[in-house]
Recover the amino acids of this structure.
């Protein structure tokens, strides 16, 4: 067994499981070393996975799903056998929206009115998500649809990477965004806007980040070992008594104050590290259908077959039973 | 390339000299910083290719532009079938990532990327040289300090102090700079 595992992550609250493995020294105790590589963008993380620069990564499910749909050249296929977390995103609207809507109007009517005004002014409402195939985009479209706004006519969507989202809101490049914690709470703390919804309140299929690996690595001993550590670290994170410590570690990784990280770890927008880690192909299929609806996927690719090839329940079960770890309730 | 106009390259970087090398090769270069609004830029400039550092966060926005329409520059470096694996790995290691439109011929793309790689290599060589010089300078300073300590505390003259350091290095099978560091360390411990 090789002693070094290179793992990619993006600076977000839901990268905590991987950070916790490192800080709890689960790797060192097993005579191995987990090397965490912080990636500046999802594109960089994807390329690092496709070119074998890293063994595995904290990843949006859309990336391995696209690879199984054969969207990437060289036919490199990625898959996942572990769901890192559920929930953890929120939608924040900027002051540019609230300042323009009369207080007497309900939010949906106010937004419709504002969308009309902005269209007439030639400055159509602009909202940011984090990547073309991210759940954030689906959540944003869903919520804006509930408010009676239509994509294309009432608003346009852009992609803003999480670390730049708050700046984009500040500079007025977007009127709002859907992003993972801590960036919503950071925006609120800076008085740039208000949170209007989160993944829990939206109630869509909840799988948020997965551990993505290359197809060849799926059956490796290292992968099985990593899954064991992830189980242990997730169980540790699900215990509220450990949140104080977890917040301190996260604060060092993302260079933000514990105060703005707290809502995404134990507060109202909390990431769920305790729910089932078993890949759920039904959630994968839903994401594929959403990707197709947004025009990011060829017509026939949204199939149960691709969902099951990508979300590997069988490998999860094998690796998890090997270490006799019970499913959290 | 039989294009009537020069190939337009958007360069997301603070490095002016790459702009000059590309311009010398006939590319029309527009250089911007990291926090620019790429949606606006791509819309107004209509670049044929974009060069960017692989770890730039802006890449996710470019991926979105690429996914929206084939008129926008598509990611090429890591995902391009026509580029040899070796070239891709080299570019990745040297910090070059690129996006290009479908109209850009693979010869033009190749030359664009090769110039960038060549440039990155030269930059690395300069940085290496700089680090080496800084290290030498720092070591020389330490040796001088160590000599002064030997001279003051042990009543040696400059030549004897240097000889003592050299002997320490030879006997301990370490460099003179390392010997000097040890002298400084033991002095610190005394203090």
């Amino acid at each position: 067994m090789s002693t070094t595992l290179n793992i990619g992550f993006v600076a977000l609250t839901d990268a905590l499981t991987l950070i916790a493995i490192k800080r709890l020294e689960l790797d060192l105790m097993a005579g191995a070393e987990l090397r965490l590589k912080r990636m500046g963008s999802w594109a960089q993380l994807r390329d690092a996975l496709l070119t074998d620069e890293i063994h595995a990564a904290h990843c949006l499910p859309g990336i391995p799903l696209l690879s199984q749909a054969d969207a990437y050249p060289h036919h490199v296929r990625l898959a996942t056998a572990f769901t890192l977390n559920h929930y953890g995103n929120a939608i924040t609207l900027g002051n540019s929206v609230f300042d323009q809507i009369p207080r007497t109007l309900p939010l949906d009517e106010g937004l419709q009115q504002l969308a009309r005004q902005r269209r007439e002014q030639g400055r159509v409402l602009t909202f940011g998500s984090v990547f073309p195939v991210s759940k954030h985009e689906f959540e944003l479209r869903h919520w804006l649809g509930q408010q009676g706004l239509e994509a294309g006519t009432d608003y346009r969507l852009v992609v803003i990477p999480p670390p730049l989202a708050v700046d984009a809101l500040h500079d007025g490049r977007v009127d709002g965004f859907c992003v993972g914690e801590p960036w919503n709470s950071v925006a609120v703390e800076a008085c740039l806007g208000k949170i209007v919804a989160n993944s829990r309140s939206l109630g869509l299929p909840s799988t948020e980040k997965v551990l993505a690996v290359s197809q060849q690595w799926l059956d490796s001993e290292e992968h099985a070992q990593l899954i064991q550590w992830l189980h242990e670290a997730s169980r540790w994170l699900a215990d509220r008594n450990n949140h104080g410590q977890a917040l301190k570690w996260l604060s060092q990784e993302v260079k933000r104050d514990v105060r703005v990280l707290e809502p995404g770890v134990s507060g109202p927008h909390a990431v769920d590290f305790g729910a089932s880690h078993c890949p759920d192909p039904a959630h994968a299929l839903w994401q594929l259908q959403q990707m197709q609806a947004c025009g990011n996927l060829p017509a026939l690719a949204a199939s149960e077959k691709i969902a099951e090839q990508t979300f590997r329940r069988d490998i999860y079960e094998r690796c998890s039973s090997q270490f006799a770890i019970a499913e959290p309730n | 390339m039989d294009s009537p106009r020069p190939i337009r390259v958007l360069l997301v970087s603070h490095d002016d000299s790459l702009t000059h090398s590309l311009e010398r090769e006939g590319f029309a270069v527009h250089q911007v910083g990291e926090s620019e609004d790429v949606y606006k830029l791509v819309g107004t400039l209509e670049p044929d290719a974009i060069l960017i550092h692989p770890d730039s966060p802006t890449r996710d926005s470019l991926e979105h532009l690429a996914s929206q329409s084939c008129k926008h520059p598509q990611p090429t470096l890591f995902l391009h079938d026509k580029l040899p694996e070796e070239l891709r790995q080299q570019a990745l290691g040297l910090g070059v990532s690129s996006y290009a439109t479908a109209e850009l011929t693979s010869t033009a793309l190749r030359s664009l990327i090769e110039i960038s790689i060549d440039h990155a290599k030269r930059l690395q060589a300069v940085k290496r040289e700089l680090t080496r010089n800084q290290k030498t300078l720092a070591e020389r300073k330490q040796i001088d300090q160590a000599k002064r300590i030997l001279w003051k505390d042990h009543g040696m003259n400059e030549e004897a102090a240097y000889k003592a350091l050299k002997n320490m290095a030879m006997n301990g099978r370490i460099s003179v700079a390392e010997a000097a560091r040890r002298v400084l360390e033991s002095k610190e411990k005394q203090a």
